[in-house]
Amino acid sequence: MKNALAFLAVLTLAICTLVGCGGEQRGRTGGRSDVRSDVQDAAIKTYVAPGDLDKYYLFSSGGHSGQVYIYGVPSMRHISTIPVFSPYPATGYGFDKESKEMLGGFDWGDAHHPSLSETNGDYDGRWLFISDNANNRMARIDLRDFKTKEIFGPIPNVSGNHCSSFATENTEYILAGSRFSVPLPKGRYEKIEDYATKYNGVVAGIAVDPKTGHMTLGWEVLMPPFNYDLGDAGKGPSADWGFWTCYNSERATGKLEVTASQKDRDYVVAVNWKRAEEAIRNNKFTMIAGVKVIEPKNADGVVFLLPAAKSPHGVDVSPDGKYIIASGKLQSITTVFSYEKMLSAIEKKDFTGNEDGIPVLNYDTVKDAEVNVGLGPLHTQFDDKGYAYTSLFVESAVAKWKLGTWEVVDKIPVSYNIGHLCASEGDTKHPTGEYLVALNKLSHGRHLSVGPSQPESSQLIDIAGEKMSLLYDAFTEPEPHYAEMIRADKLKPIEVYAKEENKNPKAIWDIKDAKVVRSGKNVEVYMVAVRSSFEPSSVDVNRGDHVTIHLTNIEQTTDELHGIGFNEYNINVVVDPGETKTIEFVADKSGVYPFYCTNFCSALHQEMQGYLLVK
Amino acid sequence: MNMNKYLAATASFFEISLDLRSRALVLLGALFLLPTFVLPLWNMTLYSNQFPDGLTLHIYSHKLEGGKSPERDDLKEINSLNHYIGMRALEEDDFTEFKWIPFVIGGMVLLAFRVVVLGKMSKLADLLVLLLYFGVFSLWSYYHKLYLYGHELDAEAAIKIDPFTPPMFGHHTLANFEVYSYPAAGSYLMLVAPLLFLAAVWYARKSWKAQHQG
Hints:
The structure holds two protein chains of two kinds. Chain A has a domain at 499-614: Sandwich (Immunoglobulin-like), CATH 2.60.40. In chain A, 10% of the residues lie in helices and 41% in strands. Chain A is built from eight helices and 41 strands. The longest helix of chain A is centred in the first third of the chain and has 18 residues, at 2-19. Chain B is of the alpha+beta class. Chain B has one domain (19-209). Chain B starts with a helix and ends with a helix. The chains are: A mainly beta, B alpha+beta. Chain A binds chain B through residues 494-496, 498, 530-532, 555-558, 603-604, 607, and chain B through 70-73, 76-77, 80, 83-84, 158-159.
């Protein structure tokens, strides 16, 4: 490894001497030359030699593609895609019975914020949760096999699940809420003119079973018709709290870019979820859409509002849990609230007003600092040395500043218009302070041109030293809203489903057990896939039959996947080694339709085929 | 006359009673047969580009076992690959050896105990002859098995190859695989038994000679 690096360094140096890698000349290769890095340093820090492994997994949200993309850090290589809210023929997701049912009839989702499960405030590598802004759902991916295991929702009363998903310190809850207030319960009509009085948002906690990860609705709090934007769970001393930002405290409708930007301050919502649990236990709730919803005016001490600089976007809690940091995207400051000061203001009832019965805390007593980070601050992450890193959308930069002294110590330009940022384990109690990925919205031709539909850019930044340095430009599928980075050694994924583990009653493990069972119009096929054949290799049905195929891949070797694609029947399912999947369809077209292995498996992969014969 | 003398000498050699040291060596030798019930007798490893760590096969006196990890079942994998050249799947039921070999080894141990108790050179000779016969027969049987697996290839196999005998000792290249085959711990320990038995013969003879001359 060391030799390889040294060789690479020499090679880089040699190439640089030959082609003249200095300053402006590099612009001749055609790329934009305004943001550059020290080439040799960056090459050595990001080069992962063939066969070597990356140090971190980066789980990046795929936005309106509906998926999650996995990158290795520091190489920034795209390793794999986990389909979540959209069908994905590459793995057969959304084509077999189980995943189809899980998608619930939706063809897409807007995968927004991923959240790794936590134990004691640190990533435990068990699950990854991700919210769906479009259809108000929450998905859970099991990191044992990197598969989406559960999609919860559409969540009642939640509309536009954007301010989600953020895990509490021991994954008791995953936070959720409404970006778009609507008349509740959903499905009801109210005139848009009545927005301010008849529309509502909610913030919610989705309870997670500590053993299975199974999600259920924990509690909801009925909120004024603001737009709840982002959130974070408390840590350490503040572990019992959840925080959300909101914009449009003007309760405006129409052209929000103007109407919702009138007030100088909006709010951070603080919910004490222990008190919310208590309120539910004490029957202080109203049933809305079959859900126990807490109305703040009936339950003291559950929810408070902290005034925050204009239309705040991200809210992030520091690793020690003492500071709540909200970034006002329309001002150049990030507001730091003190958790302790918030508690004492609540105790002293130091309120300056209320919104629909929710106390508004006195800004001057709860804020610790206004940090002048730069233009358009959005999100903040942390390192292990007491620094915070705030993304600046308008300025296209990341600001590094010190917690406690509130002094901005460094700034690095990024390309371009950064949204979220993700530091290595940077939202846990123990950030590792090695890397930061800038999730930029615009790439503006820093890549080979691919026409008008452009990828996003994700840039790797070294944050181990005093000064930040840019290491690598990666280009990513739309659209990385947020990502989380976890040390690779925390995950121990399986690569084969052990035969003993396959509890599917329809699984068969021997070619001799392959069979077709017919009862009336229902045809049930027990099929085996193994190098390099399907058994049975032909299935005879009548037109109009309801066909159910239980396909078991009886391989027990890593990477021996088999697919089954049916020509002109719009079906493709992939089964992993040791997995059984069920395919259901109505044979509504007569004729002879080939099926074949779609996932290249062996030297005789081409021969792995059969026929569906429809009389 | 000479011939008769020789026969008499031989007969009296087999009449030698074993001294304490020799009996102890026979007992120790018998103990070295016991690990064959838990340790493999033979290992085969198949290396290729796709399997740099090698697919492994362990042959015991009573069972066949492939290397097993959460990512891979080597026996299953070897069978999956072998089916392309039309080789029969390796299955435990196919080997009658797994039934009689443990039984025979158990018999050998009992015979050794008999030697320890009766303490006669003739009984020790019986044990050694039977053990030698068993050893040679087992090796031949194993070789024959390998021969059959490599020669009774399905005529309809996808890939036609010349019949071959998988290696018993050492290295063999087969398609993209480098196959290594060697005896394993159980066999090496088992080999100690006859050596101890021979030592018992030698010591018994030595002390008999010393007595005879004295």
